[in-house]
Amino acid sequence: MNAMENLGFSKKKSQAFFRLLDYGNQNDLSIDELELLDLQHRSSSVHFAMPNVRERGREQDAAAKKEALGDFYAFLSRKFRTLVAAWRQGLDADADGRLRFPEFCNACKRLGYRGRLKTVWRALDTNNVGYLTLGHIDRVAEEGLDDFRSFLEDNFRTLDDAWERVFDSDKSGRCNESHFVDSCKKLRYPGNALRVFKWLVAGRLENSDVGGVRRDLYIDDFDILGLRRRSETLNPTAEQRVLERQAKDRAEAEAMLGRFKLFLNQRFGNLVRAWRQRLDLNRSGTVHFTDFCQACRHMGFQGNLKALWLSLDSADKGEVCLDDLDPDAVTCLLDFTRLLRIFFDDLDSSWFAVLDPEASGRCTMEEFERACKVLGYIRDAKQLQRFLDICNNGVITIDELEVLGLPRGSMEEAQARAKVQPSEAREELDRILQARFGPSAAQGWRQGLCTGPLEQQWTEEMSVEEFCNRCRQLGFQGNLLALWAQVHGAGLDPELLQAHQLMLMGRKRAGMRTSTAERRIRLAASDQGASSRSSTAQTSTLNLFEKPVRDGGETQVKLLGRISLVDFLPVLHKELLQFRKKAMAKFHSAEDLWAVLLQECGSSSCGSTCSNSRSRSHRSIFRSSSQSWWRR
């Protein structure tokens, strides 16, 4: 420990390193145990002959396993005569074919075995799979029974057929050893029939068996093979036949749908491109059965088109849409469309603002990824670009984006609006607020943007969608994306993004139970009003969903963050906080503060009077009175 501390390591880290290197748990180290560090040795002539601690530990562990396993096998042989009988009668009590460690310990204690259970378990479970099967106890028996099961499956449909036709031909309900061996010879079974009989008969003992050893075989003894049994109802009803036929049709339809999707992906690259190029030729968004069959024949798809249609039109609407063919792609397109609708009124404005700012007439993959970062798109931008790239030439044009359903606008106005800088957009909004609510920026925030109660307006928050809609209601016609970037910052909110990633990791760990993780998002959303935000664009290339979740874009909007007075007027918010802190320290209630302010107004009015003792004072009188009180 002193040597490690002399090298500059803390005491805590020194202890951790020591426990890591002490392979033999002997509370000391040897030079062999330092091999974990992969350091270079000196010349071999300098080495002294020292025992390899690691190798010695392995040998001791192997010897302990061998001894414990031999003792365990001897115990089972004495008690059950064979290992298969020990497995079926003693160890695998529930006959499920698997034995986990707690079940193994309980079975051994029930049988009276008092050996080293952990050592026996490690000796049997050599691959660390976490459970034992018959093969771990007797591999030869398991392989022999597997071969016999495969032989019966190749020759008979069910176990009942094999039992009635061969092993129980006299209808006695049992099969003795000689009859079993003769039956296997008639079937030309290539294995050792006598040994298979002993494995099968090694089930539970019965009182009628001679000398405690079973002499006959019953059909239930074949359960260890796991063969299929005959249905209890040999003559199914008409309803059962209908259900079976419907299940068969559904299975055929699902298989046909998988073939169809594979065919489209191989030919067109993705299902969206196939839909727009070959299926939805009239751009109506839906396809009827006759048009669908004609398009499939034109593409050269060979298959059961009726079954394929039933799989797509599961709701029996009489028509199918892209959502029936690829719902995940539609989810991505809807989220992206909602983002564009939040910031822009028409397709041309979004095109020149973020997708094609250089007005080159096309948008490359790099430009599209950069635009998704600016917009705060949370899904896979490259996959979305492939959905929109209908011509499959690596670039997107504005005509290909018409599938999103945004209206077209004026190209000249869109280009002029796209050149507006964030500071210019903020100045335009300030001019609108001043024209409608006076020169006070605080009044513009409270009367123009806030909708909640007066006492909550200094802490009221609004999402990006709420903010943009209120700006439109005020008459703002500028670049809303630039305005949001000026007020909040472009891209995703970093705190909410981190909380959302924690939620996704929590879903995996908790088996998709997300109550704790969802509380983290709500906590991050409630704390963001008092925290500073970065104004740089946040990356959104991470695909935050293994499978897109259809939530109407709510998660997308939530991760863009919210704004409050601290974002819109940070200097004013800071002054309010200081004033509030001072007032809380000096007064017990708002009424006490108001009384002092009224008193100061009366003493410093210089001829000016308040209109009412309980009403508002003039702004100049209030400013002078508050400054006088603040100095005191």
What does this structure look like?
The chain is mainly alpha-helical and 632 residues long. Among the domains are: 49 residues, no CATH class; 83 residues, Orthogonal Bundle (Recoverin, domain 1); 87 residues, Recoverin, domain 1, CATH 1.10.238; 73 residues, Recoverin, domain 1; 45 residues, no CATH class. It is 57% helix and 3% strand. It contains 32 helices and ten strands. The strands form five sheets. The chain has a two-stranded antiparallel ribbon. The radius of gyration is 39 Å and the shape is extended. The C terminus is likely disordered.
Q: Mind sketching the topology for me?
A:
Elements: H1 2-6, H2 11-21, H3 53-80, H4 83-91, E1 99-100, H5 101-111, H6 117-124, E2 131-132, H7 134-137, H8 139-155, H9 159-167, E3 175-176, H10 177-186, H11 193-201, E4 216-217, H12 238-268, H13 271-279, E5 286-288, H14 289-299, H15 305-312, E6 319-321, H16 322-325, H17 327-343, H18 347-355, E7 363-364, H19 365-375, H20 381-388, E8 395-396, H21 411-418, H22 422-437, H23 441-449, E9 462-463, H24 464-473, H25 480-487, H26 494-509, H27 515-527, H28 554-558, E10 562-563, H29 565-568, H30 570-586, H31 590-603, H32 619-631
Antiparallel strand pairs: 1-2, 3-4, 5-6, 7-8, 9-10
Helix pairs in contact: 3-4, 3-6, 12-15, 18-21, 22-23, 22-25, 26-27, 31-32
First-last Cα distance:
61 Å
Q: What is the 3D form?
A: extended
CATH C-level category of the domain at 139-225: Mainly Alpha
CATH topology group of the domain at 139-225: Recoverin, domain 1
Rounded to the nearest angstrom, the radius of gyration is 39 Å
Main beta-sheet strand count, sense and barrel state: 2 strands, antiparallel
Give start-end ranges of low-pLDDT stretches.
Answer: 43-50, 206-212, 503-546, 606-632
Strand proportion, as a percent range, falls in under 5%
DSSP summary: helix tally: 32
How many E-type strands? 10
Main sheet strand line-up: 1-2
